[in-house]
Structure formats: C-alpha cells, structure tokens
Amino acid sequence: MSSSTQQPVLSRPAQAAAILRSLPGLAERLRASPPPSIEELRELAARLKELLPLIGDGTAAPALLSNAAARAALLNVLAVALRQLLPSSAGAPGSGAAREEELWLFCYTSVAFWGSICCSTLLTCKLSPLHSKRQLGFLLRLVRTQPLQCCALRLADVGPELLSLQQAEGEPQEGARGRAASNAAARAHDRQQKVVCGASDMLVQSLPLVFALAVPLDAGGGPPSPHNELGQLWKELASAFRDSCMLEHVARTLLLLLLPSQRVQPAGDGDSDNFRHASALGSIISRISWMASFSALADDAFPSATSEPSTLAAALLELLSGRCVRHAVLVLGVAALCAADGGPSYGLPSELLRHVPVIGQREGPDGARGEAVDLRHTNGRMVLESLAVENMVHVLRRGVRSRPPGRQGTLALLLRVGRLVAASGRAHLGACGGSAEAETTAHRECGGSACGSRSGSGCSSGSGSGSGRSGGGGVGRRQEQTTVPPQLPRPPATPGLQLRLGEAALRPLFNAALEGAMELCFPARPAERPERAAARVECWQLFAAYTRDVLPLPLDGGLPCSPVQHLRDPGAMLPGAPLPASPPPSWADALAGGWLPCLERLLHRGGEDPAGPEMRLAVSAMALFLPDGEPSTRAWRHFAVLLAYGEPRQAAVLVATLGKLLYAADLSALLESTTADNWIAAAAAMCALEGAVEEWEAASGAATFGAMTAALPAQSAANWVGPATGAQAQFPWWPQQLQALASSMRAEGWDADADGAEALAALLQSWEADGSVGVDEGELAGAEVGAKVEGGASLQKPMGLLAAWRHVEECSAVVKIEQRFALALVPVAEARGALHACSC
User: Fold this and answer.
1) What was the pLDDT predicted at 453?
2) Out of the domains of life, which is the source (predicted)?
C-alpha cells in the first residue's frame, strides 16, 4: 500500500478520544434487541483492550472521568456482560449449537474481563483532587451496579463442581478395564481441566475488580464521616461484601484449587495463577482489616451501639469471620511461618503446604527489593511479605476462641510470630553490622539468668547471714526464680533460603502479636495450666528480644507494646524490712522473663543516648512522667522488687548502672526532668531514692528527712548487693565540683542554693585536710544521732554532712525549683559514693 493511502498514526490522546466516543454506541448495542453478534462483541472487547493502557498511563483517565456518557457506557457494558455470564442467564442466540454457545460465552467473558480491568485500573490511578472526587463518584456508581454479587454468583456455581472433582478423586472405578478405562480417564481428565481452568479464570476476572473496590478501604487518613460521600461508600461496600459473601466464595475457590487433586492446569502455570490469587486475596483482606480497625477506633466519637462506625466495624469483622476466609488466612499464614522458621504446621497436610504460595521479594546486595516472587521456588536472601502473617494475626485476635485453632493454638501462633519478628530484627542488625553486639547481649542476659538459677542452691546457704540484715534471705529467694530458656526460631524449611520480614513491618506486627498473646495469658489465674504461665514468661522474653534486636534499628513510629502494663503495685517496700518468700505473681513472670537485665540495658543505653528509643522506652516502662501517683514511689517499688528478688549478679549490674548514671548526670538536667520528652536515665535512680525516703517516712512518721537521706542510699545499696558494696565508699563530689556548681548557680541568681553548695564544699575540704573522705558503716549507724547536732567548722562526718544538708534545706524553703535542688543535692552526692564501689 502506498504511503498516500496509509491512515495517519493518532496520538495517544486522540486514540483515547476516539475510543471514548465509540463507547456509548457500543454499550447501547449491547443492551439492544436482538442481542449483539459475536463480531460486535469482539469489537467491543477490542476497544476495551485498547483503552486499558491509555487509562493506565493517565492519558484517558481524566477524559473518561470528565465524560459522563463514556462513564455511564463503561458501567453499563460491565453490568450487562457480568449478568450474561450468570448461570441463570438465557442461552446463546441463533442455532443453539454447543460450539456457538461456547464462543458466545467466551466473547461475553472477554468483554466482562476487559471491562472490569478498565474499571479497576481507573479506580487505582493517581489523579488530581478534582478527578479524584469524580473517581469516588464513579466507584460509588460501580458498587451500585452489583458487580460483587454477580462475581460471587459465578464463583458459587463453580464451587460444587470443584468439590465433585475432589470426591471423584477418592472413588474407586469398578468394572472399567482396557480401552473403556482409558476413555473414562481421558473424559475425567478433560472435565477436571475444564472445571479447574474455569474456576481459575473466574478468579482472574473477579479479583482485580474486587481489589479495586477495596482500594478506598485503605484508610490512611482515618475513618471518614458517615455523612460524606466516602463514608457512604464505606457503608455500601460493607453491605455489598456482606450480602454477596464474596470473600467466602473467593477463599473457598482458592482453597479448592490448592488441593493436590486440582493440579491439572494446562492452560497456564497453575502455581503462578494461585500465587496471584493468594496475593490479591491477602491484599483485599488486609484492607478490610484496616477498615474494621479504623471504624472501631471511631467508636469514641460515636459511642452508641447503633452508630455508624460501630455498625460498620461489626459488619466488617463479620466478613472476616467466615469459615472459608478464616481457613484460607490461616493456611496462608502458617505456610509463611513454616517457610520462615521450619516450625510445625499444626496438622495441615504437608502435601497441601507444598502447593500454598509463599509471597516475598528478592533482596539485592544493597537491600533493594525486587518484584514479588513465590518463595517456594527460590533461595538466597529474601524478604517475606508480611501480609499473610498480619492477616493471620488479625483473624486470630478477632476470631471466636472455640473455633480452630483454639485458645492454645492461637497463643502458640501469636508467640511464634513474635519470635519471627525478633529473628528478622536480628538479621537486619547483622546486615548493618550490629548482630555481634546483640548476640553477646542476648547470651549474657539469658545465660546469666540460667547460670544464676543453677548456682542458686549452692549460694543461698553461704549468704544466709548477709541476707539476714535485709529481712530474711532475699538472696535465696532471688535464686529460686525459674528462668525459661528462650525459644529460638528453627532453621528455614527450604535449604539455602534466608527469610526475614521487612523493617517497616516489624513494629506493627510485633505489637499486634504481643498484644494478642497477652490478652490470652495475662493476668495469672488460680489453678491455671502451666502452658499459660510459660506463655507469660515468653511474652517478657519476646519483649526483651525486641528491645535488643529490633529497637536499635532506625524504624519510624512509636514504641512497642510492653508487658510492663501488667505489673501490679507490690505495695510498700521499706528499706531493710522483711520481705515475703516469693515475689508478687506478676513480678515473678517478669523476673523469669528477663525484665531485670532488660531494664538495666535500656537504662545503660539511655544514658549513652538520651534521645534514643531505649531512653524513651525505659522512661515509659517506669511511668515516671505520668501525672497520677508519685513517680518516685513507683520507681522505688519497681527497683526494689527487681533488686530484692532478681538474680544477684544482675541486680549488682543494675545498681552499678544506676551509680554510673548518677555519677555522670548533669544536676540541672536531672532536676528538670518532668515530662516524657526531657527525662534522663539518671532520673530513674533519683526517683527511686526519693521514693524510698518517702516510703519510709510515710510508714514510720518519725525519721527525719536529713537522717534518712544520709543513711538510706548506702545502706539500701549494701542490702541489695551484699559484699559488693565496700565499707569505705568514696564520694566523687569533690569540693572543687561543688564550688563550680555554686558559681554556676550564683550566676543564674540561685544564691540560696549556691550558699548550700559552698557549705558542703567547705565541709568536704575539711575532710580532705583530715586525710579521709570515706564513711564507714559505723559512722552511718550514728547518722540519726548526728542529725541533732548543729553544724560548725569542726563537725565530724556524717554529722557534718547532715548539718550541711540542713543548711541547704533551710536556704531553699521558698521557691519550688530551689526546693528540688535542695532535695537532690545531698542524695545525689551520697548515692554516687555509695554506688561507686559497684561501678566495675
């Protein structure tokens, strides 16, 4: 053909405009009588196929949404085509021959497929605000054409046929021999091929549209008002999903296709099809789960049981409670766990698990992610897609406890997810060179507890006299605590496959799994099963593992959930008073789970990096910034229980860490710690010392604050760690430091505090001139007597120290901030000296 007769090549906008102009006429022909011919159906399918890439690249999407006739035509085409494919529809026109009927159905299937793909692509385009509003209106009209109901009816029709194939697989064929048997087998094979391929094709046609309809359920900005267009869409979508039972039909069809007997899919790669089906179903369920969660959160604004969010949340949770949906979610989730850690399958047949897709992404050397792959057919370093595990956790937490896997099975799965998160964090740390330190820390924390437990019986008798001073054998009680060894993840099920979750999924997945597990095993109950107590201990172990292996990663978001919330107030803990033989029940689980070394590590790292997550988590765990109650009392009781009943060496390390924090603390920063944002690690030690004084004064009502301040820190430290505290503890607050402190305070106008600091400096200078800066237990024993002696130039320790304290106290009795300085000055100096001997 000559160039003069060739048609000019249209630009992409011109192609889009031409197709959109033709759509209304083609749609009208589809609805006319007599029905369209096969050629007309083919032309319509071809037009839709040409339109699809133009929508995808943004060329046709704005024009289509701005063209009311084209929008209506596309919706009408899809509605008519879907209804023509329903089982109750009339047969094909014309001769009625089987071949022509199949061809006619194929053409309608093609129109429905390309129409649904065009609609789903249009709904997922990123558009301007104006076109996004029109996009929302198009989606609302699409929902009202009932595509979910039509797709569900088609899947409902194919379900019994798939079940019949499964039943026929197990029925023996009797009396069939030779050629007859061969012919019967061939017919059975052909029928199986037709049914299986037809069911898979229906999922291919349905899932993209269902996924596109679920796109608005990704409520990143929170739940919409039930009175605006988006809120109305949420409500109608929930009703459409509920009335059609679409998720149940999709889940049942997918499960039947995964059965070993349904492996004949010659029309394509059956594994690839099932991989795409599982991926789409997982994404849809994830969006509905988020929608349900956001709707439940909105109940605070709409507290009535009949309010829109409450009703919507209940309807969405009902969608996820269907038997097939739950089973599909559990199968996909357990398969992902088995691939990651090689653990048990909880009764799922291994033959079935071999055919369940495991979705992930290949990870490059630089950490970049590739396209989605089926992890069953890969090896090397891979990132496990978290959707399957997240959906499983959500369904387990919202499910009925009497249904499989039951209460204990649910608890086991949730704890297993927590272990996977910790192992993934450890792998990410290894990639950035931090795994060696984490492994050393884990070995020290876990191994130290176990070692302490083994050696406890041998040490308790030898330390009886030492523990008697503190009220009855605290060391022996500490060593009786049972330490449950941590359960490490098993090796991957596929040799050479290294799986881990992506960093972004770690914190939300850990929170959901640990919260769900704690709902099942906290608090302790009388006559409970040993498994429940062991699960509580493992919750503490998982929290410690998270703080060690995941928290150091540069993750966005808040802090993880914590079992600290389940610790109960142990009541008054008086220094030196007799203690019960065993810790309070909630604290026994914490000690066995490693909370003592975990808290020490958080405080230690918080002292090194005050702006780091460890600092914020330690402050949050101690609840020092909460307005209700006295922070000092909470801190004192928290430390007192851990140090009284914890493993002795771990307790000594905690005391040493507190001493180091106090030694390095800036006094002004220490006193200004009033909120969660400006607390420093040393404030925990300061609060504990203040709380001990307050506890004692509240109980006795007789001891003077000055005497308690001088006697308590060193004496209680000696009781906590026994011989670890020397008789000649040194005071690192040298006169030069106090004089510098006085100068800085006077420069800021705090003259009263400067006078107190100078008085203490003069006192300590006199001690230095005498050649001694220590204080022994005998001198501490006379502290209360010495408190009654007035201070002077020749005062002896510790009476001189107490007199100087009184001077500071009297000088700062007016301004609140000065009172806080006076309150902290001597306890800090005394505690630093008392704990300095443990700082090794």
Assistant:
1) 34
2) Eukaryota
Residue 60 DSSP label = S
SS3 for 473-515, per residue?
A: CHHHHHHCCCCCCCCCCCCCCCCCEEEEECHHHHHHHHHHHHH
Residues in contact with 243: Cβ distance below 8 Å, sequence separation at least 6, in sequence order: 149
pLDDT beyond 50 at 60: yes
Tokens found for residue 380: 């090397």
Q: What was the pLDDT predicted at 494?
A: 56
Please state the rounded mean pLDDT for residues 495-507: 85
Instruction: Report the run of H or E that residue 369 belongs to, with start and end.
Output: strand 369-374
744 by DSSP, 3-state: which? helix
pLDDT digits 0-9 by tens, 26-51? 999 998 888 899 999 999 999 999 99
Per cent of the chain over pLDDT 70 is 65
What is the edge-to-edge ordering of all strands in the sheet holding 497-501?
369-374, 359-363, 380-384, 497-501
User: CA 195 to CA 190: how far, in whole Å?
Assistant: 9
Burial of residue 220 (number of CB atoms within 10 Å: 0-12, 13-18, 19+): exposed
**What DSSP state is assigned to residue 5?**
G
Round to the nearest angstrom and report the end-to-end CA distance of the chain: 94
Long-range contacts, stretch 783-791, CB < 8 angstroms, 24+ apart: 783/707, 783/710, 783/711, 784/703, 784/704, 784/707, 784/711, 787/704, 787/706, 787/707, 787/710, 791/759, 791/763
pLDDT digits (tens, 9 = 90+) for 439-465: 656 655 665 443 333 333 333 333 333
Q: How many CA atoms lie within 13 A of 734 on its CB side?
A: 4
Q: Which of 309-323, 571-585, 598-612: highest mean pLDDT?
A: 598-612
**Local confidence band at 247 (pLDDT 50, 70, 90 cut-offs):** very high
- CA–CA dist 800, 804 (Å, integer): 6
Token pair of 109 as six digits: 């299937």
Window from 204-208, 296-300, 756-760 with minimum mean pLDDT: 296-300
- How confident is the model over 279-322, as pLDDT tens digits? 999 999 998 888 887 776 655 444 444 455 567 778 888 888 89
List the Cα angle 220/509/391 in 5-degree steps.
Answer: 75
Q: Are 494 and 417 in contact (CB under 8 A)?
A: no
In angstroms, what CA-CA distances link 405 with 336, 347, 412, 413, 546? 17, 10, 10, 9, 26
**Nearest-CA neighbor of 75 among 128, 144, 148?**
144
d(CA 672, CA 53): 62
d(CA 645, CA 638): 11
φ and ψ of 568, to 5 deg: -100, 150
Between β-strands 359-363 and 380-384, what pairing exists: parallel, antiparallel or unpaired?
Answer: antiparallel
Residue whose C-alpha is closest to residue 209's, from 159, 269, 291, 154: 154
CA of 827: how far to CAs of 313, 733, 754, in Å?
Answer: 54, 11, 17
What is the model's pLDDT at position 712? 39
CA distance 319 to 113: 25
> What does the pLDDT read at residue 7?
57
Residue 372 has pLDDT above 70, yes or no: yes
Q: What mean pLDDT is predicted for residues 655-684?
A: 70
Contacts 24+ apart (CB under 8 A), 235-241: 235/308, 235/312, 236/140, 236/143, 236/144, 237/143, 237/213, 238/291, 238/312, 238/315, 238/316, 238/319, 239/315, 240/143, 240/146, 240/148, 240/149, 240/213, 241/148, 241/288, 241/319
Nearest-angstrom CA–CA distance, 79 and 63 = 21
Rg from Cα positions in the chain: 36
